[in-house]
Amino acid sequence: MECTTVQDPVEAYGIKHKLKQKFGKAKKQAGKVQALKKILADIKEIAKTSSEQFLIKRDLVDDLLYRVFVALKNSGFVNSIVKFSLTDDATRHGVVELTADLLEREVIPWEEIFEALKTSGLAVDVIKHAVTDPDTRQGVIDLIIELIPQLIDSGVLDLSEICKPIHPIGQIPPGKTPMKPPMRFLRPTNTTKTQ
């Protein structure tokens, strides 16, 4: 006696639907890979013709670079490339130098960096790490000590803006409640009695 199982049509449709989705995604990825292959072929062609011609029109190079970056963006490889560049020891140093150079030449606007840190919620983490990590704390302190006189001299910062938040010891700023001292300050330091 031979036993056969009848597959539930709903289950068969579910499997068929999942397979269809998987193949659809695979087709999209294959299309992106094909686009990248075409761009690479274009790059090879330009490299071959550039050896024959001494000068290449600037707009052709710009167009090619634009196509490469758009294809990378659309392929989803950009995040992987950036992640690899920042986590690989061989490439990280170059990426850091390039980023510093672009910031120094104001190609990357500082405002966008600070706005991105603020909106992502990373600004607090960056400052907290800079102040609490012993390896970076002294560097931050040295940087602040170096910057404050320059900011005051250039008029960006007023000395009163620095002194306002600093209150004499024991004086409580208006609207603030007194802080409790840490327990180590409550322990007596000298236990000898004078008679």
The H/E string reads HHHHHHHH
- Low-confidence runs: 181-195
Mean pLDDT value:
74
Alpha-carbon Rg, integer? 31 Å
Q: Which percent range describes the beta-strand content? A: under 5%
User: CA-to-CA gap between the ends?
Assistant: 109 Å
What is the helical fraction, as a range of percent?
A: 55-70%
What is the SS-derived class?
mainly alpha
Shape estimate: elongated
How many strands in all? 0
Number of helices in the DSSP assignment: 8
- Sheet bearing the most strands, described? none
Region (Disordered): 170-195
List the topology elements.
Blueprint: H1 9-52, H2 58-75, H3 77-87, H4 89-104, H5 110-120, H6 122-132, H7 134-153, H8 159-163
Helix pairs in contact: 1-2, 3-4, 5-6, 6-7
Provide the descriptors you would attach to this structure in a database record.
mainly alpha
Your description of this structure?
The protein is mostly helical and 195 residues long. The chain has a domain at 121-165. The protein is 70% helix and 0% strand. It has 8 helices and no strands. The longest helix is centred in the N-terminal third of the chain and has 44 residues, at 9-52. It starts with 8 loop residues before the first helix and ends in a 32-residue tail after the last helix.
